Amino acid sequence: MAFVSGLTCRECGRDNPAEALNVCDFCFGPLEVVYDYDAISDVISHERIAQGPLSIWRYQDLLPAEGTDPVDIMAGFTPLIKARNLGKKLGLNNLYIKNDSVNPSFSFKDRVVSVAATKAVEFGFETIACASTGNLACSVAAHAARAGIQAVVFIPWDLERGKVIGAAVYGPTMVSVEGSYDEVNRLCSEVADNYPWAFVNINMRPYYAEGSKTLGYEVAEQLGWRVPDHVVIPSASGAMFTKIWKGFNELACLGLLDGVAGSSFGQDQNTVHHPAVTTKMHMAQAVGCAPIVTAWANGNPHVSPVRPDTIAKSLAIGNPADGIYAIRILRESNGSAYAVPEHDVVEGIKLLAETEGIFTETAGGVTVSALKNLADSGAIKPDELTVVYITGNGLKTQEAVEDVVNPLHIKPSMGAFEDVIGQRISGLVVGG
Amino acid sequence: MMGTQRVKFTFMTQLVKEPIIYRLGQEFNLVTNIRRADVREDMGWVVLELDGDDTEIQRGLDWVAAIGVRVDPVSGDVIEG
What we know:
heterodimer, A: six-stranded mixed β-sheet, B: 5 strands
């Protein structure tokens, strides 16, 4: 069962019912799920979590879903890998990679969409929808297929073929919109107002965003119920950044972190910060779309919208809905925010691939480059426990690294092979 | 047809002093209902509801955008990666 007691406005604090809503009826502020944490603390335990499935739904007590039959394509419980080679390169002895690129539709979006799709079915919607430039469209279409409901996905008309196929294969109704980024944005918002569909990041948004908390829970569980000293997270809307922090703090308040006594969630449960959570939250954006980093750097509590112009398309949100809340967490956690130069994005992808055998998309390139900056600057000390979140798969943005394709081209003879191989691999001993 | 739209306007420095919302009401016959706002010296934003004829709402929003105000859905960008 769900322990949800309603939705609260993050701006004016008014209560709203737990329905398909995205903004407060009074002030149009964003809504957040409110939980009955007293009831949750009566039932939740490490043992109960361990008995759950190897997916995000092992944490169902902390997710806003009723029933026992979620729309689950087995999102989550992705590997946490000790990154020895990348760590050695960066001078970090205690570096881990949360590899969320291996989710069923190859990005972290499966976490949030699984929760949104489950709520959509609970509310009785027969269609789920989204506007996306890639990962979200794939995940929505995949979850709709699993749930046996309709999917409508809006995509920009010039979206790369690979991404279109990655979503189309699941059989959604795909609407290709010819227009500017702003025009597509406005159209989708109007459609959401006028059609009885569950738009995962509009009228399902309060529930959808909660799925990202599982990125915090899993890392803590995989580290033996500890939180890291540092995390490095790519940011677009800022929602995932805020939810990972919320996840760590929920675990602490519920007494689920090792050696940490639980505590009350206080008056405003969405801003709770347990003193045992000393994790420094580091945000990564690309220079071509860095509205949150810019606001942070200028000490501005508001985020000025920008028009995205970055190769990291999965991070291209010019007007981030959770930007101001992410800035509060940067401050509260003594974290930092870094805008990665565009030319370093591909370098980050290659560095991760060549050191750890993980092929990430451009967002991952942003994250790894930001991690490198933090290590080089000394912001992360060599022995501090650090987790870097890799949220999407490189097969989705292959065009970004096309220059790596440089095979040795030969005629089919041993002589031709030996002529070129000696030049490429030094110290080669034939027949040794 | 009559309709309603919820939007967020973001103004940069040169437009902060302009009576844009007043003109939106006067020149496009829209009812403007401000729900939240923060206007500073260097920038400002206003979250509001527009009530009126659908065509006039569209014309009004096009005019606002044309003079340099950024117009967004109240819930931020809805296109995601």
